[in-house]
Design brief:
There is one protein chain. A hairpin with a 2-residue loop joins strand 4 and strand 5. This protein has a single domain, classed as Jelly Rolls, CATH 2.60.120. The model has no long low-confidence stretch (mean pLDDT 88). 43% of the residues lie in helices and 29% in strands. The strands form two sheets. It has a four-stranded antiparallel beta sheet. It has a four-stranded antiparallel beta sheet with strand order 2-7-4-5, with no helix packed on it. By secondary structure, it is of the alpha+beta class.
C-alpha cells in the first residue's frame, strides 16, 4: 500500500473526513504502518497509552477485564479508530484490543494526534462527537443490563 492508500483510509475515518487531503498526506507520512497476527494484542487494558490506531484491514475484539476473565464488549474492523481515549485523557488503556484475524493498522502517536487536533479544530469536534456516541451506547447497555436484572 502507498501513502495515497493511507490518505484514503484516513478520509474514510469519521474523525479525519473533513481534513484537507494535503494535511492527511502529512499525517499518513508520519504515521507508522503496523501488523498484528490473529490472536495478538494491539494493546492490553492498563497499559500506558502512547498511540491510537486506525484499522486498515482485519478485525479485532474489544475486551475488558472482569473478575470472571475477559469480556468481549465490541468488535472493530476496517476504518475503526481505537486507542484514542487513552491518549486523549492521558490514562492507561481502558480495554484490550485483540486481533481476531490478521490486522494492518496505521499507528498514530500521541504527539502526532495532538498536533493534528491543534491544527484542525474540526478533528476536536469529531472526537467529542464520537466519544459522546460511545458514552450514549455504554449508557444504553447499562440501562438494558439493569432492566434485565429486575
Amino acid at each position: 500500500m502507498s501513502i495515497l492508500d493511507d490518505v484514503e483510509a484516513l478520509k474514510r475515518t469519521p474523525l479525519f473526513a473533513k481534513v484537507e487531503p494535503s494535511r492527511l498526506k502529512l499525517m499518513a507520512f508520519a504515521a507508522e504502518r503496523t501488523q498484528f497476527r490473529a490472536g495478538e494484542e494491539m494493546f492490553h487494558q492498563g497499559d500506558n497509552a502512547d498511540a491510537a490506531y486506525i484499522i486498515l484491514e482485519g478485525r479485532a475484539d474489544v475486551l475488558i477485564d472482569t473478575p470472571n476473565g475477559p469480556l468481549k464488549v465490541a468488535e472493530v474492523g476496517r476504518d475503526a479508530f481505537v486507542g484514542e481515549i487513552g491518549i486523549l485523557c492521558d490514562v492507561p488503556r481502558t480495554a484490550t484490543i485483540k486481533a481476531t484475524e490478521n490486522l494492518t493498522t496505521l499507528k498514530i502517536t500521541k504527539d502526532l494526534f495532538f498536533r493534528m487536533v491543534s491544527d484542525f479544530p474540526t478533528i476536536s469536534i469529531e472526537v467529542m462527537r464520537v466519544l459522546a456516541q460511545r458514552l450514549e451506547h455504554t449508557t444504553e447497555q447499562l440501562r438494558d443490563a439493569v432492566a434485565t436484572k429486575h
